[in-house]
């Protein structure tokens, strides 16, 4: 079977093909993952939140969570079109250790992860970073600034989280579309640089 010459139609079709990228939005319990995906999704996000009960009080540490009443029990899902050619599918993972089994399935096919961290609870980010590294996912850190949290220099955060020099760090407010979009764009650019 011989090859045929490439036509203008072929070129047009190739340019119109969209690239779908699976991105995980991860972080410790109550860091803002569900809020982040809700802020960024162009479709009504899929949420699997359940009301927290007294039965889980001994399991989920609510210290510093400012009125949290629900928790993700499976995943959050949203979609964001970044350009005519690039669509991100955002998958949010539960933050509690008891849901770690969900991670293995969620990491399949993922290009990378955006790790949300709370600057007041940095030590809670270590198990999440360890999991992302265990599954071999490239990642960026997004410091989710809640009301009244102090700004910390990137170098201080990099040292506290024991990050490699090339790991991107960006700040955001998960409730704010512009800063959240900037966090995703930072991750996408980092992933693009790694493939060059």
Short précis:
With 196 residues, the chain is an alpha/beta fold. It is built from six helices and seven strands.
Which terms summarize this structure?
single chain, 196 residues, alpha/beta, 7-stranded mixed β-sheet, 6 helices, globular, P-loop_NTPase
Structure explained in plain terms:
This protein has 196 residues and is an alpha/beta fold. The protein has helices at residues 8-16, 33-40, 100-107, 126-134, 154-160, 177-195, and strands at 19-27, 46-51, 70-81, 86-92, 110-117, 139-144, 169-172. It has a 7-stranded mixed beta sheet with strand order 2-3-4-1-5-6-7, with helices on both faces. It is globular. Residues 6-13 have low confidence and may be disordered.
Architecture blueprint of SSEs:
Blueprint: H1 8-16, E1 19-27, H2 33-40, E2 46-51, E3 70-81, E4 86-92, H3 100-107, E5 110-117, H4 126-134, E6 139-144, H5 154-160, E7 169-172, H6 177-195
Parallel strand pairs: 1-4, 1-5, 5-6, 6-7
Antiparallel strand pairs: 2-3, 3-4
């Amino acid at each position: 079977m011989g090859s045929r010459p490439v036509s203008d139609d072929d070129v047009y079709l190739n340019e119109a093909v969209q690239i779908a990228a699976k991105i995980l939005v991860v972080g410790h319990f109550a860091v803002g993952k569900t809020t982040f995906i809700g802020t960024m999704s162009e479709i009504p996000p899929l949420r699997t939140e359940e009301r927290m009960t007294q039965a889980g009080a001994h399991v989920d540490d609510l210290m510093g969570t400012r009125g949290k009443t629900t928790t993700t029990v499976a995943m959050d899902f949203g979609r964001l079109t970044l350009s005519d050619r690039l669509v991100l599918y955002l998958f949010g993972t539960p933050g509690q250790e008891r849901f770690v089994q969900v991670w293995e399935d969620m990491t399949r096919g993922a290009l990378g992860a955006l790790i949300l961290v709370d600057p007041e609870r940095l030590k809670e980010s270590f198990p999440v970073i360890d999991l992302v590294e265990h599954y071999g996912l490239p990642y960026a850190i997004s410091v989710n600034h809640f009301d009244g949290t102090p700004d910390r220099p990137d170098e201080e955060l990099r040292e506290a989280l024991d990050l490699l020099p090339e790991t991107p760090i960006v700040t955001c407010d998960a409730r704010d579309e512009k800063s959240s979009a900037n966090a995703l764009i930072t991750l996408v650019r980092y992933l693009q640089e790694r493939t060059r």
